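USER: My hope is that you can spare some time for a protein that puzzles me. I am handing you a single protein, as its sequence and its fold in token form. Walk me, if you will, through where the backbone shape changes along the chain. The protein I mean follows directly.
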Amino acid sequence: MIRLKAGQATDRGRRREKNEDSMLVEGELFAVADGLGGHQGGEVASALAIEVLAAHIETEVKARTGDRRRHLFTRRTSESPAPTLDELVDAVDRANEEILAKSTSSPELEGMGTTLCALAVVEHEHSQALAVINVGDSRVYRCDDSGFHQLTEDHTVVQEMVKAGILTRQEAEVHTYRHHLSRALGIEPKVVVDDWILEPVSGHRYLLCSDGLTNEVADRDIHAILLQFESPAEAADALVSQALQHGGSDNVTVVIVDVVDVGLP
């Protein structure tokens, strides 16, 4: 068993009328979604992504294992089944389909979409591992003995230009289109999902966040706060507060997950 401890915080920021971010902290499944779209579209899209992600994974795991418990994730034990990476990715695909269907059937929600990044305990090669998935420019980082590392890659027009050698990273940081997404849920019938399997290591700390944090707070300062606070809840609050102090120009959402212990299989 992998034992985790999590903390979370969110704020609409100082310039936004509402919070279009959504987050999930449920058992051993964690996610952050940052909605986009006019009117109510952003908050609907991000909330739907989180809802479908959790529900579809639970349905898939129960169908595979015959587990009949009502709440699979919140009542997990050492014998409880975890999802596979494929089931996690399938859940993202389903969320994409449902967001697109809702936006095309509701004129007031036309064009809505959302980012989505998630961390979960999964079954992998007859054991348990951690999995990360990502679509968009919300991010997953890992803080460990070797430093602070961004695990996900932003799906933005500017990042694609950096990969193609058209822009330098320094130019990308100030580019007019640095926030224009090249990939998001709810925009196209099919979405490409980035995914990774990670080895769980006691003492590692993971950060999931919307760009309301990373646009306001430099990586070195995020790292310093993660090292300063032992409690993931206190660290999450401190990161959100720092983003607000630096301007709070967007909604900001933070989920911090600590790997407390990794038991023998």
Remarks:
- Residues 201 and 259 are 7 Å apart (CA to CA).
- The helical segments are 41-65, 85-105, 157-163, 169-172, 211-214, 219-228, 232-245.
- DSSP finds seven helices and eleven strands in the chain.
